[in-house]
Amino acid sequence: MDQSFSSQLVNLLAALLLLIAFAMLSQRRVLTLIKLFAWQGAALAASTLIVAHSTGQTHLYFSGALTVLLKVMLIPWVLHRLIDRLQVRWDVETLINIPATMLIGIGLVIFAFALAAPISEMANTLTRATLGIAMASILLSFLMMIVRRKAVPQVIGFLAMENGLFLAATSATYGMPLVVELGVALDVLVGTFIFGIFFFHIREQFDSLDIRHMEKLKED
Amino acid sequence: MNYAPGIAFQLLQSVFVVLAAPLLMGWVNQCRAWLQNRSAPSIWLPYFTLAKLFRKDAVIAHDASPLFRMTPYILFGCMWLAAGIVPVLATDLPFAPAADIIALVGVFALARVFSALAAMDIGTSFGGLGARREMLIGFLAEPAMLMTLFTAAFISGSTQLTTIVETLAYREFAIYPSLAFAAVAFLMVLLAENARIPIDNPTTHLELTMVHEAMILEYSGRHLALIEWAVAIKLFAYVTIGIALFVPWGIAAAGNWAALPVAVASLALKLGLAGAGLALIETLLAKLRLFLAPEFLSTAFLLAVLGMLTHFLTHG
Amino acid sequence: MIDAVSPLPGSLAVGICWLAIAALALIPSGNAFFARHVAFPLGALAGLALAVFGLEAVWLPAAQMTLPLGMPDLPFHLRVDPLAGFFLMLLGSVAAGISVYAGGYFRDETPGRLALIGLQYHVFLASMAFVILADDAYLFMVAWETMAVSSYFLVTTDHQQAAIRSAGFLYLLIAHLGALAILLCFGVMHGGLGDYTFDALRSAQLEPKWATVAFLLAFFGFGAKAGMIPLHVWLPEAHPAAPSPVSALMSGVMIKTAIYGMVRVIYDLIGGVRWEWGMLVLVVGAGTTLFGVLYALMQHDLKRLLAYHSVENIGIILLGLGMSMVFIGFGHPAAGILGLIAALYHTLNHAVFKGLLFLGAGSILHSAKLRNLNHMGGLIRTMPKTAFYFLIGALAISALPPLNGFVSEWLTFQTALQAPILQNGVVRSLLPLFAAILALAGALTAMCFVKVYGVAFLGRPREAGHAAQAPSGGPAHDAGNMERFGMAWLAAGCFVLGLFPTSFLLMLNRVGVSLTGHGLSNEALESNWLWLVPTAPAQASYSPLIFLIVIVGVTLLTFLLVRRFYHGRVRFADPWDCGFAQQTPRMQDSADAFGQPIRHVFGPLYLMKRHMPGPDDAAPRFSLKIEDRHWYLLYLPVARLAAYLSSKIGMLQQGRISIYLLYSFLTLIALLVLVR
């Protein structure tokens, strides 16, 4: 595989990642959201593996495999179980209507691309164009966390944000040292479990996962 | 310069598209029937239906104006024109420079406006309802389509469909991430513009959910036949635009007559796959509520815009 | 014969001729024959001559002239260059059609009123000609104000109605705000040196800071006249209030003089266009376009709807201008000229089709006495000829090929597609977004005109008796001969502009060269009459004539084939009622109903006051009122502030002469101290 072809493939996968980020932003159903999250993980893993193959950075193979294991299989499975137990398959509430959210999303993408353009000019790594895409997906996931009312989509937004960060790391510096990556992966996993426990507590307290109820917790 | 072969080919392609279009419709219906576990009708059924309709008398409401009777012919003419612009078998189309992608979108808009006007002509409540809904879908589908095409235009630096196809099919192979966005957006527009599920149901018999069918409720006989045929050509044109933009490989280069058999075979294969895919989508998805249609289409529009932005990022 | 007269004296003669007709119209006569059959047709002939002179001027070098009129030491300067020539052509050709129409339209007026209308109408025409001819700030402002005042009187022709009086007042108010800004702009450009001829202003070197100030003032001042948001509020009030030919003239031509002023001042007088200015113009233009069309979709008064479409089209012109300024600012004059051409082409196109549509609306108003779309229906049966012309106008404004509206939007899209040559990444990705807004507006316009045409001309009459016969008792009739001639003239314009765009492209290229010294690429200039090529044949081309021939040919061929192989048998029956026993014409979609999906999708943009009938209403009524948010967000606070300030200033007024003398005395002392 020659360099330019693999860089094109990585660009394509990064674009897919962004596409999925947009799909998540416009998606109302929790179940589909989890599926999309798994696909996003798959795109991320594939791009990491391609970067690993074309640059010969062996530690990237590990992080790619870790991504598949964790983000394509384990976390989606945990989330699936979680929503089965919590009986929240549907989620129709967003704070802003979806076209408006997507319009804001487009604005964020322009912002991210403009921000990344000068950095990409300087960088000479294989995947410099993906930096902008990575930043855009981070911002989009952040936006998703802001506009969702229910707790589960917010967690998925958080995890998707981590995907974007990971992509940024791969594209800018060919990934972080393996130790750091392992640590981050573990953090994400533990985080997911903690969130899971949290959900049960929220629901026990308020009989709902709507985070608006948390407003009552503040001191008046 | 000898124009004769080009013009001959242009005529050949136009006639080919007009004649082959109902076949694609028949194929989609057949696939859908299979997927839904029904016994499928003949693939030639659309032709039989057209022949039957042509033989019948046209029944027209007392109040109909000349516009009502002209519209089926105008629709058919618009779609035929569109079929002449899209490179289906080869890029050798002398007529293509007369209308680029923007004009192509304009042709579809012209057809839409006339069909909506004809629907309002009789003065029934369903005609108005259909026209209103059709224009609602159109006002978002049209810009989304234009933005999709612009993404391709930015890649090839041209708004000529033939030049775009030549660039994508023959120049050095490259992957364009922007086209991934454009493809998704285009698929969504295709479904909406051709009155397919999830926006509209082409086989519905329930007036309240109709969009396209509500507009043509008053037509019968040869007028209805022309409209149905135009609808088939429109679907064919859209699918071939999709093929030309996203999987152009196999199309014959200008003047290369020897490549034509290969082009026909690859086109048949691609159309077959596209038709099956369309049937699959229609089987898997449910029809959206009418007011979710703008959301669906604005998503398409924004994805197309996003594709354009991605193009500027990766090829800036 | 006409070749013997050079454009500048010729145009001047036309202007004077219009003034003379205005004076003649005042001659008291017993009946209206003179005004209708002599004055207005003469004015139309003069307009035609002006169009020819303008056309000629585009191809000639600029010519100047000084008139020993005006104040001592302040003579009037006149000049005709290609830009002025183009706008003179626009004014003359559109005014010719409208004048003939007006001769037929005013048939029911009393002689006295007709004399007044004739005076104001021709003064209005002459003032627009002098705005374009002016070569110094003094004459420009005089003509500009004459234009505002004469059109004010035309708007308030029916001054007995309070609503029309207040519309006129609003118009006059905003027109003066704009004029003030333009005056200040000339002051800034002048910079305290030399005189106020345009030559002096052109040669003055402004600091970038002051150039931007001048640009902002010009943009505000001319924008107020053009009807860009948020200064558009007068337009949907004033244009419908005027008699229809005057509405056509105001929407078609008068707001275009503002575009002329903008191009003249920004490209020619200030010079050194900056891309930041272009971005401002683009943002305002995009807002104006979307706002205009979305509000147009909510209207049910036909003329008001058309007025909102004028706002939208001004937005489209501004989009073209803005793109042009961005490209020129970044140093790509070829693409910049393409944008300018697109903008000016749309200016001409809009003048033609909007004139036509207003004339059509006038004929409906005149014969069926209707302006509310919700009451119309089925007019195609009683007014088939008007319906035909209106259809051409509707298709043209909806930017459908092969008519003229499409050509200019196509050129604007082509300009936007030049974006990859820009250096600035953000601007580069924003430019196609503006093209997306244009595409959205175009599709929404098509929706709006399907609504207008479907509701007014198609279907069945919604209110019994209205379309079948006018309230006066006689049957509703089609437009008269003179009215039809006026509409046919403009409809032919839609076709000519749509089918032979290359000649206009070359003409506008000449305008661009005279303004900036740059033109389109050579490949573009080699395009012949059949093929429109804005940049290079491989990039884009469009041939409307082939397009039309093919579409008509294929349609006819289909028709003949069907007739040949099948039959032409037709049976007539009642429309299918879907099993519902009683279908009445009132069940058809009304104009408001047609806009309902848009109201749903863009709900937050509108200020809606809706009254829904309750379940136990004895007399259920549904009412809906849509208002402009700008009133509440911008204008009323400003008005309140003004009222508050004037109440404070009012305290100065004590009513005692000695106090007033004291004010003068204090002012004198202060001035002496300052000037010392």
What does this entry look like structurally?
Chain A is 79% helix and 0% strand. Chain A is an all-alpha fold and 220 residues long. The N and C termini of chain A lie far apart (63 Å). Chain B is mainly α and 316 residues long. Chain B has helices at residues 4-35, 45-55, 66-85, 101-121, 125-156, 161-170, 177-193, 212-215, 221-246, 260-284, 293-314; one strand spanning 58-61. In chain B, helix 3 runs parallel beside helix 9 (221-246) and helix 5 crosses helix 6. The mean pLDDT of chain B is 88. With 676 residues, chain C is mainly α. Helix content of chain C is 68%, strand content 4%. Chain C has 24 helices and 5 strands. In chain C, helix 4 runs antiparallel to helix 5. The radius of gyration of chain C is 26 Å and the shape is globular. Classes of the chains: A mainly alpha (220), B mainly alpha (316), C mainly alpha (676). The interface between A and B is medium-sized, with 27 and 22 residues.
* Topology, number of strands of chain C: 5
Number of helices of chain A: 7
Major sheet summary line of chain A:
none
Structural class of chain C: mainly alpha
Distance between the termini of chain C: 64 Å
Radius of gyration of chain A: 18 Å
Beta-strand content of chain C: under 5%
Topology of helices and strands:
The complex is a heterotrimer of chains A (220), B (316) and C (676).
Chain A: H1 3-26, H2 30-55, H3 58-86, H4 98-122, H5 130-147, H6 151-173, H7 178-206
Helix pairs in contact in A: 1-2, 1-5, 1-6, 2-3, 2-6, 3-7, 4-5, 5-6, 6-7
Chain B: H1 4-35, H2 45-55, E1 58-61, H3 66-85, H4 101-121, H5 125-156, H6 161-170, H7 177-193, H8 212-215, H9 221-246, H10 260-284, H11 293-314
Helix pairs in contact in B: 1-3, 1-9, 1-10, 2-9, 3-4, 3-9, 4-5, 5-6, 5-7, 5-11, 7-9, 7-11
Chain C: H1 7-25, H2 33-59, E1 63-71, E2 74-80, H3 82-105, H4 111-133, H5 137-155, H6 162-190, H7 198-203, H8 208-226, H9 235-241, H10 244-270, H11 275-296, H12 302-329, H13 333-368, H14 379-382, H15 384-397, H16 404-416, H17 425-456, H18 481-499, H19 501-516, H20 522-525, H21 544-565, E3 570-573, H22 591-601, E4 607-611, E5 623-627, H23 629-649, H24 657-675
Antiparallel strand pairs in C: 1-2, 4-5
Helix pairs in contact in C: 1-2, 1-4, 2-3, 2-4, 3-4, 3-10, 3-13, 3-18, 4-5, 4-10, 5-6, 5-10, 6-8, 6-9, 8-10, 9-10, 9-12, 10-12, 10-13, 11-12, 11-17, 12-13, 12-16, 12-17, 13-15, 13-16, 13-18, 13-19, 15-17, 15-18, 16-17, 16-18
